[in-house]
Amino acid sequence: MNKSRATIRYAKSLLDLSKDQNCIESSYNDMLVIDSICLSNRDFNSLLRTPIVKTDLKIRIIKEIFSKKISSLSLSFIILITAKKRESLLADISSSFIRLYKKLNNIKEVTVITAIPLDDDIKKEVVNFANKENKSTIELVEKVDKNIIGGAIIRMEDKQLDASISSKLKSLKKTFSKNLYIQDY
Fold first, then answer.
1. Integer Cα distance of 179 and 16 in angstroms
2. Cα 82 to the chain's mean position, in Å?
3. What is the number of alpha carbons within 13 Å of residue 133 lying toward its C-beta?
């Protein structure tokens, strides 16, 4: 089975189970915790991927790490995945679950890249601008990149609005680098 297909199936199964037990929000928060741990902790990822550590020991470690941080449903789900020797897919499953949850609840992620951090008024303006595009809940992700010099880059799904100074300078440089000389004129 393809890795991505397997992760989506497991994520969908957890989502359906969470719907049945009326704990979708809890499972979403649990998957956010798991996703952040998987992204930030290299040793944990190595533990999940290594075939040297036995499954029983992995389950004990997972229980120790997550028993007080996530719900019993999510913990049971992770233990089941580990028992089926699919624990190496945990990071991808949590990411897939988060995407499915956002799709279910019509949450759109908008990324804003600026040279300096945004103040609250500008954040509200960006959210209002994104709401005009489509009527959904907006989740704003703010990134700071000094290389854009000024302005902003706004990304939402497959659309991008680049109003950065660096892109304008690149455009000017490209325009000036063209040879506008017409021979025999």
1. 61
2. 23
3. 19
Tens digits of per-residue pLDDT, 39-87? 999 999 999 999 999 999 999 999 999 989 999 999 999 999 999 999 9
Residues 111, 116, 117, CA angle at the centre, nearest 5°? 60
Residues near 90 by beta carbon (within 8 Å), at least 6 away in sequence:
34, 38, 48, 78, 81
Owner of token pair 């949450």: 107
Strand partners, 140: 110
* E strand intervals along the chain: 107-114, 137-144, 151-156, 159-164
Q: Which residue has the tokens 């499954």?
A: 55
Structure tokens at 5: 């297909």
CA distance 47 to 32: 19
Which 3 state secondary structure label does DSSP give 64?
helix
CA distances for 160 relative to 40, 70, 91, 118, 154, angstroms: 28, 35, 27, 18, 6
Per-residue pLDDT tens digits for 80-109: 999 999 999 999 999 999 999 999 999 988
Q: What are phi and psi of 161, to 5 degrees?
A: -115, 115
